[in-house]
Amino acid sequence: MIKVAIFASGSGSNFENIMARVNDGTLSNIEVTSLVVDKKDAYAIERARKFDVPIHVVLPKSFESKEAYEAEILSYLKEEGVEWVVLAGYMRLIGTTLLDAYEGRMLNIHPSLLPKHKGKDAIGQALESGDTKSGSTVHYVDSGMDTGEIIEQMSCEIEDGETKASLESKIKAIEYELYPKVIKSIIQ
Question: Which residue of 6, 9, 105, 159 is most buried, as measured by CB atoms within 10 A?
């Protein structure tokens, strides 16, 4: 079993999907040691409680620097023997403290076909740019904003009259299939 920590900032739907796949045996290769959140009101916390996953709420504003913030997280990860970090809607750039410790062992999922539409509101960006396709990308994490090496992508069509909500729903469905598949194949 490979020990994995999952990081999230918001609703935690990808976290919940991963946990469901762990519980049904699809992701029998990993053990989720904890959920790390950077917001005390992240709904991911409620989802983690459903699965009895330990939760670390680490608030960046409680620290004098990014290094100190990440050192606190790193202390939890080391204590738990975490071998891989999986970002699932974690809305901060990873700094050198965590990158150095988990180089090549940190994954992220992003709701666009990278390298297009990095950062926040990628779905809105795709609609505004008039794209006819969108999708999701799993990539390794580096110091940039969604710039790490691409591992795998899945796409969907953007229909005429597509709304942000309808496209987001399509992309979530893709993510729920894509991320567990990549996690299973990469984390061994």
Answer: 6
